Amino acid sequence: xxxxxxxxxxxxxxxxxxxxxxxxxxxxxxxxxxxxxxxxxxxxxxxxxxxxxxxxxxxxxxxxxxxxxxxxxxxxxxxxxxxxxxxxxxxxxxxxxxxxxxxxxxxxxxxxxxxxxxxxxxxxxxxxxxxxxxxxxxxxxxxxxxxxxxxxxxxxxxxxxxxxxxxxxxxxxxxxxxxxxxxxxxxxxxxxxxxxx
Amino acid sequence: xxxxxxxxxxxxxxxxxxxxxxxxxxxxxxxxxxxxxxxxxxxxxxxxxxxxxxxxxxxxxxxxxxxxxxxxxxxxxxxxxxxxxxxxxxxxxxxxxxxxxxxxxxxxxxxxxxxxxxxxxxxxxxxxxxxxxxxxxxxxxxxxxxxxxxxxxxxxxxxxxxxxxxxxxxxxxxxxxxxxxxxxxxxxxxxxxxxxx
DNA sequence: AAGTGTTGCTAACATGTGTTAGTTGTTTTA
DNA sequence: TAAAACAACTAACACATGTTAGCAACACTT
Lengths: 197, 197
Description:
2 copies of one chain form a homodimer.
Chain A: H1 12-27, H2 34-41, H3 55-79, H4 84-101, H5 103-112, H6 120-144, H7 153-165, H8 167-172, H9 179-194
Chain A binds a DNA duplex through residues 1-4, 12, 33-35, 43-47, 49-51, 54-55.
């Protein structure tokens, strides 16, 4: 009876959640079965239920841990005393690095949240809506200050967020540029598309 | 026994494919069942099989009809005698309009192609890879001509394509700006992020 | 009106799914 | 070392899934 290996400070549940992120990313939430997950973890499917309540619980954990990180970051951003365009750039860099370093989690949260069940679903959608509004508000301030082009702020947010999710393709590509180059290129194009002049 | 309604020139299969696009978009390919689809079409699940071979056939049809449209467009673009940046802009406008007018199909093709089965899967992935290379080649020419900033072309392609898929959120938003405004805003930001100066 | 192909129905199957019950083995605690 | 807690196992259930077989109703041609 081979137990799930754990280093200290990493619970067996964490191991499962991490493997679940990789699996959900690869196959999609619906297509990934608990038996697949069990195999990845090295255990029988039923054994997983000693550590988790349900398959969807795994999705909750992933979605909300990501959502919380972004919420904290935008809290932080709003209080900083820098120009709007710098706020946007910092936020973008955070998004980019999250996508680079916590690829599977962020990707799953982004693509698979539809499969959450209420009340988690509405909760998540709310957070998402609020986050985007706050992001748009930063851009609108920038427009009023003439730092940023006259554009529709919600559209700009939409472009930024989705553009960053393209890092998915970078991850899977064989001949990648370095993470640093990727970040700089993205910032050049995205911030370049916003700034006035 | 209520038949599937068809206007002339629209086969019953086309009706099914169209409803499938809407359903796959809403729930995802895996989560959408043939019984769901049957209900949307107004018929029993088994009856669908008088018109189609399998569930995945529906996905093939959707994915490849979209892929073909983009392939034809880039063929056309490559032969036009205009500057690289204009080619990019035209291509972007095409992407934007496809996403606006054939939302469900394009979205499904973009998000659900993973569930294709070989040989369709490899075929699709190949087409995708080739398309992006050709898009990147246009950008690289623009960089050599100094029309476009010195950036990593594949990264730029990645940003453009994913940014456009953000139109998904526009579709679902309640207080939308018009399609024309959306197009102009996207072009402003995206092309603005590319051009030199 | 008869015949023929088309399109629908019901019933069913085989398989895969998430999950629970009950039990056995393994660690940790006392 | 015995007791208590934990984590694995096997077996099974209830249900949803894609799909097929066989048959009935419809529509169009002659």
